[in-house]
Amino acid sequence: MSGLTNIVWHESNVTKKDRQEKNNHRSAALWFTGLSGSGKSTVSVALEKRLHELGIHTYRLDGDNVRHGLNKNLGFSPEDRKENIRRIGEVTNLMVDAGLVTLTAFISPYREDRDGARALLGENEFIEVYVKCSVEACEARDPKGLYKKARAGEIKGFTGIDAPYEEPSNPEVIVDTEKQSLEESVQVLVTYLREKGYIV
């Protein structure tokens, strides 16, 4: 750690504000959180497509995708989950600084870790999106067959079965994928972004 004393932040001549003005929209992170199978990836993919069609500069970070590269050395222990989200928070912060509307789809089961990402990004650039769906409905969907494996004891520490999921206490947006269609969920999010002045 002592080597960190020799590292100095190098400022850029192009600011986040400059990038936002060129893009003609503000940048922020939409942090999708919810159980496995709740619809985080599905909703974020559809929202990204809609925003792209509207001319918004976006990038999507997905839990499984990131674990193929940046976080492939991490498992699913509480400590590794914490580090997974810490790294994602840092990458998301860079993408928001680059002027992008960044969509992150991670279970991120611990409130403390999500709050850490919020603190890093700042209140006006962190939009917590709770993809609400009961364990029963997620298990009925089970798109990856993970609940079945968890019930059979093949996966240990599976969120919602034998590991906790802490619901957001005060998310900016809730999409309820048991009650809302995909199109309705996307529209709720686009409306929020417009009403709050992130996009026009």
Describe the largest sheet: 5 strands, parallel
What is the CATH homology-level superfamily? P-loop containing nucleotide triphosphate hydrolases
User: Numbering strands along the chain, what is their spatial order in the largest sheet?
Assistant: 2-3-1-4-5
> What structural class do the secondary elements suggest?
alpha/beta
- Strand percentage lies at 5-15%
Q: Do you know the CATH topology?
A: Rossmann fold
**Quaternary structure classification:** single chain
What percentage of residues falls in helices of 4 or more residues? 40-55%
Report on the architecture of this protein.
The protein has 200 residues and is an alpha/beta fold. It has one domain: Rossmann fold, CATH 3.40.50. The protein is 42% helix and 14% strand. The chain is built from 8 helices and 5 strands; from the N terminus they run H-E-H-E-H-H-E-H-E-H-H-E-H. It has a 5-stranded parallel beta sheet, with helices on both faces. Helix 4 runs parallel beside helix 5. It is globular and about 55 Å long. The N and C termini lie far apart (45 Å). 35% of the residues are buried. The model has no long low-confidence stretch (mean pLDDT 92).
